[in-house]
């Protein structure tokens, strides 16, 4: 594999730091050209000292001064508005987008327009602007490779296959910390309980999304755009052990699955090495001691976020962007302890019912609908 020059957006987060662990294992295969963080300037400064990138970006401008010394001789950008510049640097081959939420969309679009390989962890990019991104991909030489574990599993199952031969995608879901809770028990769950994912150690936003199962809804939309598959052909299934990361059933009745321990380093390295593979020093499954692999149907009544997400893609237009913005606001309000857990789907549902938008879909109007939805989602359920 030719040495790749990387821009890592969100290098201080869960995906960002795991990516840097992979790069430490393969200094001959990867060179870090750019790193970015939002406010964690101390960790960013350590990363800059270790990886010596040509470009460093800190979103929170009040910390630019703190980073100046450590970046001397290299370029320091201050403010989130510069993220798309980082995503389209001429001497970068691959942009790993590990930003969280809608904040990642502009960078995904910029990287695609600049013809990069985009290793996409930021699923919200495809949720809000899947149509725009797909159109841009057709016009450029860019590649969009998923980092998300389920979509990496799908890609691994589909490599060497024709998309026309897919009968169904089975997307697995852990069920989160509240899989066995009743609807009544869900009324009183705390932030601490919701942040305690049974299998994965991830950033706060996605961990809450996993607990409401909105994460699975977002991932169904993500799979729809990545593999050009109608939503009714994507079946979510609960698999509490998170060993099977997803499956494809083909038109002849055969199914392929991708399995492994719940470890994001595996899909991250695959997104960087695809279609090749690189060795990775990380724990392996012990199949002699493998636990039972079990499956259950999704309870759409208990976890309405999955249904809301699937319906939003059927509605089309701005509906997935409204769903996403309302969910981001609701999750943050829950984390701030301003609302109860069960208010998260309520805020999403009310936003989808109340916000109407007829303008044509483009990156600018997407910004406006995102803004309007956030104002509404913050104003309800006090
Ligand atoms: N974590 C995981 O295992 C998985 C994550 N994903 C997806 O990957 C993405 C990243 O998730 P994760 O790593 O968990 O998230 P984290 O919250 O751990 O990290 C987010 C990163 O983005 C930066 N950031 C946060 N907000 C902004 C903003 N508004 N503008 C610019 N930078 C920002 C953070 O900087 P700072 O540290 O300074 O705040 C941090 O570097 C998400 O879309 C998630 O859904 C998908 C599959 C698995
Ligand atoms: C690791 C990863 O890809 C997460 O998106 C994971 O899927 C979360 O688990 P559940 O949403 O299945 O609980
Ligand atoms: Mn996932």
UniProtKB/TrEMBL annotation:
Enzyme Commission (EC) number: 1.1.1.267
Keyword Oxidoreductase: yes
Gene field: dxr
Alphabetical keyword list: Isoprene biosynthesis, Magnesium, Manganese, Metal-binding, NADP, Oxidoreductase
List of residues binding 1-deoxy-D-xylulose 5-phosphate: 123, 149-150, 174, 197, 210, 215-216, 219
Reported function: Catalyzes the NADPH-dependent rearrangement and reduction of 1-deoxy-D-xylulose-5-phosphate (DXP) to 2-C-methyl-D-erythritol 4-phosphate (MEP).
Domain 1-deoxy-D-xylulose 5-phosphate reductoisomerase C-terminal: 144-227
Similarity field: Belongs to the DXR family.
Coiled coil: none
Positions bound to NADPH: 12-15, 40, 122, 124, 203
Cofactor(s) the protein requires to work: Mg(2+); Mn(2+)
Domain of life: Bacteria
Classification via Pfam families: DXP_redisom_C, DXP_reductoisom, DXPR_C
Full protein name: 1-deoxy-D-xylulose 5-phosphate reductoisomerase
Binding annotation for Mn(2+): 148, 150, 219
Keyword Flavoprotein: no
One GO MF term attached to the UniProt entry: 1-deoxy-D-xylulose-5-phosphate reductoisomerase activity
SUPFAM superfamilies given in the database record: 1-deoxy-D-xylulose-5-phosphate reductoisomerase, C-terminal domain (SSF69055), Glyceraldehyde-3-phosphate dehydrogenase-like, C-terminal domain (SSF55347), NAD(P)-binding Rossmann-fold domains (SSF51735)
Residue span(s) of domain DXP reductoisomerase C-terminal: 259-374
Annotated 1-deoxy-D-xylulose 5-phosphate reductoisomerase N-terminal domain residues: 6-130
Catalytic activity: 2-C-methyl-D-erythritol 4-phosphate + NADP(+) = 1-deoxy-D-xylulose 5-phosphate + NADPH + H(+)
Pathway(s) per entry: Isoprenoid biosynthesis; isopentenyl diphosphate biosynthesis via DXP pathway; isopentenyl diphosphate from 1-deoxy-D-xylulose 5-phosphate: step 1/6
Organism ancestry: Bacteria, Pseudomonadati, Balneolota, Balneolia, Balneolales
